[in-house]
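SUBJECT: protein chain
CONTENTS: sequence, C-alpha cells:
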Amino acid sequence: MRTVLNLKQQPRQEDSLRSLYLPALSLALTLLPAGFAPAHAAVAIQHTAPLEVAREAYLMGTILQVKVWARDAEAGFGAIEAALGEVRRIDEMLSSWRADSELSRLNAAIPGATVELSAELFALLGEVRAWAEASGGAFDPALGPLIDIWDLRGPGRRPSQSEIARAVAASGLDGFEFDESLERVVRLRPDVWLTAGGFGKGVALRAARAALKEAGISSAFLDFGGQILAIGAPEGQASWAVGVAHPGQRQRCVAELRLSQSSAATSAASERFIEVGGTRFGHLLDPRTGWPVPAWGSVTVVAEDPLLADMASTTLFVLGPEVGLRWAEARADLGVLFIEYGGDGLVANWNGAMRPWLSRSELLAASLRDNREGRDSIRTCVTEQHMP
C-alpha cells in the first residue's frame, strides 16, 4: 500500500477562490490511493476482515481523504463521520475566512475590549504562543497586517519597504494580551489579526484522530490537503508508504516515508504565489522581515502530534535549510527532511530523528540525480498550494 504526500495546503475561502484550485484538485483526485471514492462519496471494499471503508469530503478549503479499517461498514462510516464532524467543528472555531468563527470574533474585537474565549481555543492559543516563542520569531500566526499589505487573499500587490516595516511593527502575538487566570484576551492594536494557516490543519487532524480512537479505529489514513495522519498500518502491513514530492515538479517524488502513528507535513513556496510586475512571491511570509520566503525547496516534518508537524514545517521553511537543519538536530521529537535546490539539481539533508521514517534512503540520492536528467526514479506525486 503506497500513497503520495501532497505538500500541505493552507485554508482558503471556499467560494471566491474555488476556481484557483480546480486544476490542482483534479490532479490530486487522479492519484488517490485505491479505495477512495469520488468527492463527497463513500465506499466499502471487502478484501479481508476487517472491512476497509473510505470517504473524502471538502472541508477547510481543501479535500480531506479518510480511509479506515473497521469491523463492518456501519462502524467504519460512523467513525469517519465522527472524524469529519470534528474537523467541521475545528473549522467553525479557527477559520479566519468566515466571520462567525471564534477566532474571527477575536480578530474583530475593538482594541482594548476583553474577549472571553472557550477553554479549548484559549489552551490551543497557549500552545501556539509557546511554539512561536521557541521558534525565535520564525513562526507567528498574528500576520494579518502583512497579509493585508501583500494582498495575499486577493490578486496581490508589492508593498513599499516602509509599508512592510509598518506592517511588521503592527503584526505579532504581542498585539494580544492573554489573561491566563480568566481565559480572556485583549486585542491591543487595531490592525493585528490571527490566521490559522500555519496550524489549523494540525489541530483538525488531532481532533479527528481522537474521534477515530473513540470509535475504536486502530488503523486509518488521512490526507488533509497534503498533511498526512497515519494511524496504525494497512491491514497485513507494518506501515504506510508515502512519497514526498519534488519541490518544483509536482508530478515527481524524490523520497519515500514509512509512517505509522505519526503525521507528516511538507511546506514549500512553489505552487501558490502572487505575481506582481513579472515577479513571483510565495504565500509563506517571514514574520521577522515581512517578506515572502524564497522558493529554496521544501521541508517535510514527521511528528507524533499533527499540530507539531504542521507548525514545525512552516517554521523550518521560514528558517531555511541551513539554520533549520541546525535547529532540527536538537529535536528528537521531529523528523525533518530538507530538499534544497542545488547548483545542478537537488540536495537532500535530514536530521537523526528522520532516519527511522525515511524509507530506502539509499535511493534518495539516485532519485535526485535522475531528476536532474528529467526522470523520476520513484513515482509520480502531487504538490502543494499554500494560502495564508
About this structure: The first helix runs from residue 18 to 29.
